[in-house]
Amino acid sequence: MSFIISLGIGALRNSRGNLFKTSKVALQAFKPQRQTIRSVKTSTVDWKPIKSGTTDLAKKEHQVKHAKVRYFFLSLMIAMPVVSFILGCWQVQRLDWKSKLIARTENSLTLPPLEELPADLDPNVIPEYEYRKIKIRGHFDYEQEMFLGPRKRPDGELGYLVVCPFVRSNGGKPILVERGWISKEKIVPSTRSSGYLSHLALPKGEIEIVAMFRVMPPRSYLQYSHDEGSRLFFIPDVAAMAAQSGALPIYCQAVYDMSDHPEYRRNNEKLNASEKGGQGGSGWFFSKGKSTSTPAENMSSLHDDTDSTLEYLQSEFVNEGVPIGTVPKVGFKNNHLQYLVTWFALSFFSAGLLIYSLAKGRSSSADKVIAAKRTHMKKME
């Protein structure tokens, strides 16, 4: 009986304990919980990520892989100061040569003209007399008149240079004379033979001209060759001009002269009178058609045929087809001083860059790569 009573008391105690625990859990469920409030908001993005940079080891390995390229550029750096220094020394020699050439030609322009040329003039000696003025007597062979161009004047007007063989009075073969520039509208001789300046455009008979010797560069393989028999030349091919006209390969340029020549007018008047008298002309260049007085002839009669000081305007020469000669001045350009300064400066700076590169020790080797690997391993320990 006592045993039964003890079992009942134990069961009652267990039930009370379970009931107490259940009530305690229920009370905790109804108990208000404490909330945590953040006072500072932080971003979830990492604005400073870790970046992997190029290490010394990677640089050394890159240098070893590109050793050939590095040696190639090193060779260029070594060759540059040497080659530029040699070119600078060469420009010093060129400067001395060009200065002497300009001085010699300027001196030739100041000398009085040569008045007598030998009949058997040697073309090989002409380079020694370039830019030397000459005064020769004879007449132009208009049947062999040639044109060089086209050429533009400074104002943009298009025209051609007239080249005509000049038959010397003292004998010998003719020489080529560049008379000057004419507009493209005055190429046909008939447009130049009827104006009041026809005695200057197409002087007839024996006259005296002043010209200067010139040496023209030979035609290169890249330039157009001349069409045989054509009067038009694109470049001053002296050899082809001489062969076509039967003249010596000697090229002269008529000196710029805007003054009148009364003796030219008298010669033209005499020859024109003989042509009108029925003797006929010497070629199609001087054919004038009907013999009637023109306004140009009336204007020509107003000028005094003894006034040699009269000068005309360039516009008059252009309108009447009178060739405008060449101004006697040296046409050489001397830029060798700028060239030698450029080459020596390039040699100096390239030599400094080479010394700087060698002093910095940019050339790598296997030992440097191994040393860099050891240093890198020590940093990782």
UniProtKB/TrEMBL annotation:
It is found in: Membrane; Mitochondrion inner membrane. One of its GO terms (biological process) is mitochondrial respiratory chain complex IV assembly. One of its GO terms (cellular component) is mitochondrial inner membrane. Signal peptide: none annotated. The keyword Amino-acid biosynthesis does not apply. The chain crosses the membrane at residues 71-90, 339-359. The keyword Transmembrane applies. Keywords: Membrane, Mitochondrion, Mitochondrion inner membrane, Transmembrane, Transmembrane helix. It is a multi-pass membrane protein. Its main location: membrane. It comes from the Eukaryota. Belongs to the SURF1 family. Probably involved in the biogenesis of the COX complex. This is SURF1-like protein. It comes from [Candida] railenensis.
